[in-house]
Specification:
21% strand, 172 residues, alpha+beta, two-stranded antiparallel ribbon, 4-stranded antiparallel β-sheet, elongated
């Protein structure tokens, strides 16, 4: 965790994130500390966060909104898929002919697909899929993913048991 001292009044009004030349927001130490506070507890009150990072409640609220607007973070409820009716999860590796972006975009648009990454390994794209049951998973893979233009082949890795799922990687 970052050690952040009491911020001066002028710090509260400075930008919490500036864009680098690549267009990626560059976060200051206070914004990183705010993100870490929210990773520990997404419902933590702004007043408590402000006390921890040395800002007023209003300044924390403003910074959090900016981080949300910039797409730096999201605040969501993370569920256990089994408890809300999704009994089958799988990672699907996809081999693509041609442009990978089109396939990645089409996968991203599917409601069952939770996670899409373009890779430089054995697969061109990896997609995590959450489904109600095996029939639903088969339908998604066979009738929808394999039918996408550019998909050459797929390989599915069905989850037998989820041992760890965390979003606590910090801000390093």
């Amino acid at each position: 965790m970052h050690s952040v001292g009491v911020a001066s009044r002028s710090t509260e009004h400075r930008d919490s994130a500036r864009e680098s030349r690549s267009g990626t927001p560059q976060l200051d130490a206070v914004s990183l500390a705010i993100v870490e506070q929210l990773q520990e507890d997404g419902r933590r009150p702004y007043a408590a966060i402000g006390k921890a990072v040395g800002l007023s409640e209003a300044a924390v609220r403003q910074r959090v909104q900016k981080l949300l607007d910039q797409g730096v973070m999201q605040i969501v409820a993370v569920t256990d898929p089994l408890t809300v009716g999704f009994r089958r999860q799988a990672m699907v590796g996809v081999h693509v002919e041609g442009d990978v972006n089109g396939v990645a975009d089409a996968l991203s648009a599917m409601s069952e697909v939770e996670y899409v990454v373009m890779t430089a390994g054995s697969f061109d794209v990896l997609a995590e899929i959450v489904c109600e049951d095996d029939d639903h998973l088969l339908d998604v893979i066979n009738r929808r993913i394999r039918a996408l233009p550019g998909v050459r082949s797929t390989e599915s890795f069905v989850y037998l048991k989820l041992k760890k799922q965390t979003y606590m990687w910090g801000t390093r």
